[in-house]
Write a structure and sequence with these properties.
Number of strands: 21
Structural class: alpha/beta
Bound molecules: nicotinamide-adenine-dinucleotide
Distance between the termini: 37 Å
Mean pLDDT: 98
Strand order of the largest sheet: 14-15-16-13-12-18-19
Helix content: 25-40%
Oligomer: single chain
Low-confidence stretches: none
Strand content: 15-25%
Amino acid sequence: MQLAEFRNEPLCDFKGNPEHKRRMEEAMEEVRKELGREYDLVIKGERIKTPDKLYSYNPGQKGQVVGVFSKADAELADLAIHAADETFKSWSRTPAEDRAELLLKTAGIIRERKFHYAAWMCYEVGKTWPEADADVAEAIDFAEFYAREILRLDKLQPLTPIPAERNYLRYIPLGVGVVIPPWNFPLAILMGMTLASVVAGNTVVLKPSSDSPMIGHKLLEALEQAGMPPGVVNYLPCPGSSVGDVLVGHARTRFVAFTGSKEVGLHINEVAAKTPPGQVWVKRVIAEMGGKDSIVVDSEADLEAAVEGVTVSTFGYQGQKCSACSRAIVVESVYEAFLDKLKRRVEQIKVGSTTDPDNYMGPVINARAKQSILEYIEIGKKEGRLITGGEEAPGPGHFIRPTVIADVAPQARIAQEEIFGPVLAVIKARNFNEALEIANNTEYGLTGAVYSKNRQNLEKAADEFFVGNLYFNRKCTGALVGGHPFGGFNMSGTDSKAGGRDYLLLFTQAKVVSEKLAP
Ligand code: NAD
């Protein structure tokens, strides 16, 4: 199979391209008519209804049901793992080219309906049009990238020649994976982890987040349309807190691909470390977790660019990205000037429903998240000086005003704990060296950025700023598949670098065959 070199999916331009705007408006309308339908869980292609239901709500419109989903219990979780295990026997022997083909077809189906996928995200998780479009584009990128990657790994791997022997190494799949994504990139991350598993020859049980089961179902539909054999991906909405442990702890589960919070990631790691009777392997856990990401603003920075970078990194998708900036660490000599400009810029942000493309910020994901963010804002008001925001915003959903709190101490709670909402702590540093020290003072290590024109300072940051993804003179969000392999250090995860050339290795194991040649 010959494929053109990987290129990132182009993004839509809803402001400049009237065709994009028209198609998105149409998709929003069509999807709106589909809201509230019922969906079954799917094990080995079989649709199963359960009496217990999970409701997915529009966070921007209280009470609006996006979809109603059959919810699995422990028994169905067990059935799903066994179904995946059974299917593994044939799928693991399916040629890599055919597996790659499934991803390419799936990417094609999603590309064709990209406005609809984006529209579902606007309704289900409150993404604005550009954020939803970027999520779809990243999902397509993962499919295209991993399809190429498996073809590369499937080729003969270089080994040192040994006289009178014929040796070769092949990457073979692991077995059954449990895929546990978060809601904040409901298509891209869910699809990235699922398709990486599947293209490597594994079968999976996909447990979508309870806040975004709809988008997971939409991926399943695309995979089925693309010809996926039943049982390769089993779709299992269920409560993570109870049934999650059954899936993770199951003796036939070979690996877990998780993206979510530190707390849940560490719990999964512990459950997976136990060896139930009958389990003959050490489970592999690929865990990408939270962040508390900083942007350092040096005295020699372009302040306008820094203000813009901090604003979009902090408030894009309401601050609900693991890569979102939540701390601006600003060198003393430019601190007040930076704050002044930042306040003016942030106060231009419009908050409201993402059905209206003029709004830059939509709702936060649910009532619980809103409550927790507002509590952090109250803590922040005591820990620093409120510059702007600091309260909920009017509207029919979970809206919060973009909030900036200055003069925050480096060890303050809002400077250390992941808030996962539109809240920025601004911290003053005496000089660049101190700014870097502060940047490294959390338990996380996901993304970071530095705004500076001083080459020496940038080089120092390249050596010392301990994060998986470091950016210079640009925002700290918006990693692109292929160009910015993504994943963090320390409590941000196992640094799996999604969208990079090492990623598929995590879903395989290497087998070496050595044959003594007759003299
Ligand atoms: P979460 O940890 O609450 O949930 C993640 C997933 O785990 C969900 O599907 C949930 O249902 C499931 N879950 C919960 N308890 C479980 C259990 N006991 N067993 C198995 N599964 C269980 O996270 P979230 O709120 O969905 O997402 C936000 C978090 O994700 C933030 O902390 C964010 O930083 C992080 N995140 C990290 C990355 C990254 O690449 N590092 C990317 C996106 C999001």
